[in-house]
Amino acid sequence: MLNQFGSSVKKAKKKKRPEPRTATFLIVGVMKASTTTAAKILSSREDISFTYNELHYFDKADNFSKGKAWYEAHFEAGKKERGEKTPVYSFYPEAIRRIHEYNPKMKLVLMLRDPVTRAYSQYNHMRQQTKKLGAACFLKVDLKKTFREYLEMDEAKDGEPVTLDKTAPQTMLRRGYYMEQIDNILKLFPKEQLLVLTQERYNADPLAENNRIFSFLNLPPLTALEPVHEHARSYEEEMLAEDKEWLAGKYAAHNEKLFEFLGYRIPEWTTPAEDQK
Ligand SMILES: Nc1ncnc2c1ncn2[C@@H]1O[C@H](COP(=O)(O)OS(=O)(=O)O)[C@@H](OP(=O)(O)O)[C@H]1O
């Protein structure tokens, strides 16, 4: 058939645009706050594409250099939400900046834990990994150094900018300054795009707390949930009482700022002995 200009008209074949695979939400923190348990639950939902393994795209140079196509190949198109969890993202301002550049509409879930027990869980994890993997361990620690020595090394760097350098993964104290991380997120993202949960409540009432995540993502709630407990580790030694007290003192002012931001206190968290009177 000819058109008005005399050229033949072929039936226009509509080119199908590839469906987006952009990540729409992330669990950005914090290490040791039940983030793997949350990942297991999220990855079991049919309406979400969620990568159980940590992708470390926005923080690790070798992954980031692989580009967006590599990252998005981990997600399925056609799902209501796509996401992953890498619980170190919230610690690095540069990772948060990259996330914002990637998708300014990204929804961020930040799971927090008593910073005192969080720090010790990280130290315990790192010691066990170092013993298992030796020199190849990404989170390698010097097994001769005590928990307190690591904390004091961190303390000496308080106030310095947090950068994506090789020593940052070993940071234990600073990762518990949660309001620093929240302030940094809120410099780029509106408050409505951030959901803050606490591990203590998440573990105590997983159905309600997971439903908070689903509601944040505009997804229907679950009516039941099988118990999940990922990444449980045994402890060779308990935290020393004096380290606990020292840490509680270091975190007290940071926690106060957090409670003010949240609008509620978290009584489950360790408080310095003098504040318990
Ligand atoms: N359901 C439930 N109940 C109680 N405790 C729980 C649960 N799920 C995870 N956990 C504890 O959370 C810690 C692991 O957190 P993460 O998965 O975020 O760790 S990681 O950052 O991915 O390494 C790890 O804490 P520690 O055992 O103190 O190291 C887990 O035992």
UniProtKB/TrEMBL annotation:
List UniProt keywords, sorted A-Z. Answer: Glycoprotein, Transferase
Highest taxon in the source lineage: Eukaryota
Which InterPro entries does this UniProt record tie to the protein?
Answer: NST/OST (IPR037359), P-loop_NTPase (IPR027417), Sulfotransferase_dom (IPR000863)
Domain Sulfotransferase: residue ranges:
25-230
Q: Which Pfam families match?
A: Sulfotransfer_1
> What PANTHER family does UniProt report for this protein, alphabetically?
BIFUNCTIONAL HEPARAN SULFATE N-DEACETYLASE_N-SULFOTRANSFERASE, HEPARAN SULFATE SULFOTRANSFERASE
Provide the protein name: Sulfotransferase domain-containing protein
